[in-house]
Structures are given as C-alpha cells and as structure tokens.
Design brief:
Blueprint: H1 33-52, H2 60-69, H3 72-87, H4 91-112, H5 115-126, H6 135-150, H7 157-187, E1 190-192, H8 202-214, E2 221-223, H9 227-236, H10 240-251, H11 263-279, H12 285-290, H13 298-329, H14 338-353, H15 357-360, H16 366-381, E3 383-388, E4 398-405, E5 408-418, E6 428-433, E7 445-452, H17 465-482, H18 498-512, H19 515-521, H20 533-541, H21 547-566, H22 575-586, H23 602-605, H24 616-634, H25 640-651, H26 659-667, H27 674-680
Parallel strand pairs: 5-7
Antiparallel strand pairs: 1-2, 3-4, 4-5, 6-7
Zinc ion binds near residues 473, 477, 502 and 505.
InterPro entries: M3A_DCP, MetalloPept_cat_dom_sf, Neurolysin/TOP_dom2, Pept_M3A_M3B, Pept_M3A_M3B_dom
Pfam family, one: Peptidase_M3
Family: Belongs to the peptidase M3 family.
C-alpha cells in the first residue's frame, strides 16, 4: 500500500525553504509518508548509534547535546504526519498511522533501552555537580536520566524486551482507539425535517442545514456528534424523544458491537499499562504516571478531586431540584435524565439570569474572538499578529498568522477552527516545530485546532461562550509554545508536567471573561453593536451557574480514569462494568453523565498523554484561579510588571524551571487552593445572582 519513488525527492525530507521554513503542504502527498518515515528512522538510528559508540569519554556536548540535535528529519516527518492525522485525515494516512504506531514505539524503546547510551547518560548524571552546567543544562540532564530510568534502562534484558513489546502494542491500540471514535462520529447523522426543529435557534438551524446539504441531504437538517453540533441541540431542542436518541448515540461512541468497539481495546491497554508499571517497580500505572508530575502521587490527585466532589454533589442536587421544578411547571412528570439536563438548564439560566445562549451567540463571532485573543496577547506580551496568505496550508479551512514582537518575527501561528468530517473531534494545540536555540534561534510553528460549527450561508461562525472559552484556552497553550525561550528542545514550550501544562491555557481563559475584552470584541454580527452592558453583567453574574453539573461530569471522568489505572491486576477487565461500579461508589447522580465515557475517552486512550492524568485540569485550575487574582489585585488585567513575571517564569520558561518555583516566581508565593472553590462557586458562599 505504500509507493516508493526511487530517485524522486520526497518533499518531507528536503530542506523547507518557504516563509518560516513551514512544511510545503502544497507538495506533500499522503502516500509519501511511509517512505519518508523509513528514511528518517534509519537516519535517526544511525545518529543515536554513533553517539552511543563514541570512543571519547561522555561529555554534555558529545552526548546530551548530540542527542538533542539528532533525529531532525524524523521530527519533521512525524510532526507533519500526526498533525494531519488529527486535522485532515484520509484512508492512506489512517493506514500509515496503524502501520507506523508500533514501529515508532519500537524505535523509541530501542533508544531508551540502548545500554551504551544510558551508560553515558548515567555517568554524566553521577558526575553532574562537577560538569559546570548552567541551570538549564542541569535540568536537561536530569530529564534525560529520569526518562531513561522511567523507560526501563538498567533493567534485566527480559524485562526490557517485554517493555518494548508492551510499548509497541499500546501504540497500535491507541491509534485504533482514536480511529474507532472518529469512525463512529462520521457514521452518525441525525436527520431532521422542518417539523423536528422545535426550540432550535436560527444559528443552529443554519448550521444544521449546511451539514445536511454537505452530507447529501439537501433541504433537510443534520445534527452530528461533534460537540459544537450536539451540545446546542441538547440545549435547545424541545423534542425529548430526539434529544434522547441523539444523546444515546453520543454517549455510545466506541461502544457498539462490531469493528469500532473500543471496550476490548481499553481493557487491554489498562492491562498492559499495569504490567509496564509493575516491571518498572511501581504499585500501579497511576503511581508510575503521577511520580513525574506536580501532584506526585495518586492520593494527592484523589484528595483534590474529593475536595471538590462533596460540595459539587450538594450544588448539583440544588441545580437538579430547580430543573425538576421547571419540568413540573411544564406539566412533565419524568425525572430529569442526562438528555434533559442541558435543555432545562438553558431554560433555568434564562429564568434566573435573563440570559439565553441564543441572545449571546450573535455577539460571539469567531473572527472577532480570534482578534480578542490576539489583542490580549498584545497587551500582555507585546505580540502582534499579521495574517499571511502566501503560506500554503493543508486545508483551506486553516489560516496562518505571522507573530512578531518589536518588529521581529517570533513564531508562525496556524488557526484551524471549523469542524469538518476529516478532523477528529475536540480542541487541541500542537506544533509543527518547537522553539529552541541550540544552533541559532529556531522559531516555533504552532497550531490551534478546534471544531466550531460553520455559520449559515454567507454568515460568520458564531460561538457559544463555552466555545469562546475553548478558543482562549487553546490559544493559551499556543502562547506557551510561541513564547518559549529555551535553548534545548527537550524543555521547549509545553514540554512540562501534565498537571502544570493546563495552567497557561486555563489562565488565559480569564481574559475572555473581562468586560474590557467583551466590550471591544463581542460585536453583533449584523449590526456591529457591542454586547450591551446589561448582557455583559448578566454573563459575568451567570459564571457560576451550573457549576455543580460541570464539576461532576468532569470529576467523574477523572475519578474513573484514576480507578482504571490504580488497578494493579486488571485481568478479565470489563471497563464499562468498572466505570459503573466507580460511578456508584462516588454517588454520581443519575441525571448527569460523565463528560467522557471510557469507550471514547480519547484523553486517556488515544495515546498516552492524559492517561491517569485527566485530573490535571483541576490541578492546574488551582494555579489559574489563584494566578489570575494576581492581576485583579493590581486593579489592572494587563498589569505590566505582573505580565512580565508571568512571561518570564511561565510562558517563556517551558520545562526549564521547577514548577513550584516557577509559580512562586510569578506569584510571589505558593498557590492557595481557596481560589479554585471560589471560582467554581463551591466555597459555601451563596451563588451570585
Ligand atoms: Zn488544555
């Protein structure tokens, strides 16, 4: 299935000479990745072997820096490939992903299990005090030593071989998991006739009409399982039968019998992860994963989740009571179900705050909110953004912006905002190239990917306030990548502990909510009028609305993640049964569903990144809630000196600093957890409004 083109230049491996040395997307074809991977892997292997076999005694330069410089082509090919797999996939790319996942995993294992290389790293680490390293170099060496030991260096050969097998199998399963979710999402379309549209606001009808037309049902209306389509449908549709049908399909992604069933995949992954942790000497996979985080132990993460769980259950019960009353007032006598919650919460919000989503959306134009995110970055960090139309991208839906400071380029930023069927669901930041200064300044190329619904014909895409928050969130991650100012790739940008990495992104969300930003950028798409002050006030007042629900749907997912991965002997694991058991143990209300159920929990199964780590968002929220108060305390949300410390200690620092020290450098003290409960309205004070 892979074609090689002997003698032909492969654009993936040629020097990229266009603006920002960006990948030449116009020249790259899906069927060229396999050959490019093969060549780049061989190169990387030869480079590693040469470093390991160097007859000179190990030095920081001939070992650590040499490794940091190696594998350049592999980085190029892999970063383009994995970005495209997420954003603009096709059958060829999916096949290459399945083929390459185990091969790349084996390559990674071979690197970490290379005894000669590890011996050099270990010798340097043992002598680290005498090497005259600067603080960043010392941190790089420490990371290398830790990564080697956490990947099995130094273990007996049989254990190392088994770790490599496990890694390979996990990589294949993770790739399949993500593809199955995408397949289930692609396969589903709720087709509506005009009489099925009761309660739906204009923006949703317009996007549903467009979706149906694109999928070959002109004149009808379509709801997909993309969050930007199904969530507003659940919020507004007055057809309980349709809400239930759509919700059940959404909730069952990855759980259908047949070739997209993720249940056996998740079970096998949990089993293999537990085995890996045991080989490395840890009590469970959660213990292994948490050892290299700010939280350090599963117990610390559980303690945090439990500290919000009880007040959130109390708040959610009050919320549910109010929704039940609303339903009763309409003459309904059913108990609120998960497919009713959003619908009645929307009504409740309207009643309590005189606020409805349909009223907010016309003021939240995608283009203006992108400008708002740029504006805040300008005020805080002096960045300017200029759209470039001369840089070929991988899809016409994506946009490129040159990022500069003091007239000098800093980064290339790619924004890919709208949903399409070739894109995975969710929102994320990634890079095509990370920042470093190993051989002169290498500027980063950062991408933000989102799944906002397109607007109706000739109309802008209009966002919900949650969508807008997502845009700011991912842009916060983007800034972490763009402002990175470190020497070594290993410490660049978002290469930090998982429970610290959400701090720069969640902190950035706070600027969206500031009246100063909304007045300037929340402009009506038809009249250009700014959002009325009364609406801004209502929006701010409603910030703590429905936080019992939001906290529980999130925390339940985080607790199920930990309970799956605290399992030391997960033989014959039925992941759905375990999920149900955990939900019963924690007392999950019937009316609320997990934000991500196990069979489609891509954070923890589609790759490794958030496995036993979904709690990280809440951990980082301690930091962002407390951190934003630093600006409030000055009375200026763009306070220059506070912004400078935030830049130096957090956004520019990548992984070059200890996280507690980085936070204290910015804030002047350790974080206080009270701000988190205040932010969510769970601190016992009556809800505002
Ligand atoms: Zn994030």
């Amino acid at each position: 299935m892979t074609k090689s083109h002997p003698g032909e230049a492969n654009p993936l491996l040629e020097p990229w000479t266009g603006p920002f040395e960006a990948p030449p997307f116009d020249l790259i074809r899906s069927d060229e990745f396999r050959a490019a991977f093969d060549r780049a892997l061989a190169e990387a292997r030869a480079e590693t072997d040469a470093i390991a076999a160097n007859p000179e005694p190990p030095t920081f330069a001939n070992t650590i820096e040499a490794v940091e410089r190696s594998g350049k082509n592999l980085d190029k090919v892999a970063s383009v490939f994995f970005n495209l797999v997420g954003t603009d996939s096709d059958e060829t790319l999916e096949a290459v992903e399945r083929d390459m996942a185990p091969i790349l995993s084996r390559h990674r294992s071979a690197f970490f299990l290379n005894e000669a290389l590890f011996a050099r790293v270990a010798e340097l680490y043992a002598n680290r005090a005498k090497l005259g390293l600067d603080p960043e170099q010392a941190r790089v060496l420490e990371r290398y030593h830790l990564n080697f030991t956490r990947n099995g260096a130094g273990l007996p050969p049989a254990a190392k071989a088994r770790l490599a097998d496990i890694g390979e199998r996990l990589a294949s399963l993770g790739a399949q998991f993500g593809q199955n979710v995408l397949a289930d999402e692609k396969a589903y379309l709720l087709i509506l006739d005009i009489e099925d549209l009761g309660g739906l606001p204009d923006f949703l009808i317009a996007s549903a009409a467009r979706i149906a037309a694109e999928r070959g049902h002109p004149g009808k209306y379509g709801i997909t399982l993309s969050r930007s389509s199904i969530e507003p449908f659940l919020q507004f549709s007055n057809r309980r039968d349709l809400r239930e049908r759509a919700f059940r399909a959404w909730s069952a992604r990855g759980e259908s019998d047949g070739h997209t069933d993720n249940r056996p995949i998740a079970a096998e992954m949990v089993r293999l992860r537990a085995e890996r942790a045991a080989l490395l000497g840890y009590e469970s996979f959660a213990h292994f994963r948490l050892a290299d985080t700010m939280a350090k132990t599963p117990q610390a993460a559980l303690d945090l989740l439990e500290s919000v769980w009880t007040p959130a259950v109390r708040r959610a019960a009050e919320e549910e009571g109010a929704l039940q009353k609303l339903a009763a007032a309409e003459g309904e006598n059913f108990a609120i179900a998960p497919w009713d919650w959003r619908y009645y919460a929307e009504k409740q919000r309207k009643a309590e705050f005189d606020l409805d989503e349909g009223e907010i959306k016309p003021y939240l134009q995608l283009g203006k909110l992108i400008e708002a995110a740029f504006y805040a970055a300008n005020r805080l960090f002096g960045l300017s953004f200029t759209e470039r139309f001369d840089i070929p991208l991988y899809n016409k839906g994506a946009r490129a912006f040159e990022v500069a400071r003091d007239g000098k380029p800093v980064a290339l930023f790619i924004g890919d905002y709208l949903a399409r069927s070739s894109k995975r669901s969710g929102a994320w930041m990634s890079d095509f190239r990370g920042q470093h200064k190993l051989d002169g300044a290498q500027l980063p190329i950062i991408v933000n990917v989102m799944n906002f619904a397109q607007g109706g014909e000739g109309e802008p895409s209009l966002l919900s306030f949650d969508d807008a928050r997502t845009l700011f969130h991912e842009f916060g991650h983007g800034l972490h990548g763009m402002l990175s100012d470190v020497t070594y790739p290993t410490l660049s940008g978002t290469n930090v502990a998982r429970d610290f990495v959400e701090f720069p992104s969640q902190l950035y969300e706070h600027w969206l909510e500031q009246p100063e930003i909304l007045r300037r950028f929340a402009l009506h798409y038809e009249t250009g009028a700014p959002m009325p002050e009364t609406l801004i006030e209502k929006l701010v007042a409603a910030r703590k609305f429905n936080q019992g629900f939001a906290t529980l749907e999130y925390a339940a997912s985080a607790l199920v993640d930990l309970s799956l991965h605290l399992n030391a002997t997960p033989e014959d694991l039925d992941v759905v049964a375990l999920e149900q058991k955990e939900l019963a143990r924690i007392g999950m209300p019937e009316a609320i569903a997990m934000r991500h159920r196990t069979p489609h929990f891509q954070h923890i199964f589609s790759g490794e990144s958030y496995s036993a780590g979904y709690y990280s968002y809440l951990w980082s929220e301690i930091l962002d809630a407390d951190g934003f108060e630093a600006f409030h305390e000055t009375g200026d949300i763009f306070h220059t000196e506070t912004a400078r410390r935030l830049h130096d200690f957090v956004y520019a620092a990548g992984g070059s600093r200890d996280y507690e020290a980085a936070y204290a450098g910015f804030r002047g003290r350790a974080p206080s957890p009270e701000a988190l409960l205040r932010k969510r309205g769970l601190d016992g004070a009556p809800a505002e409004g």
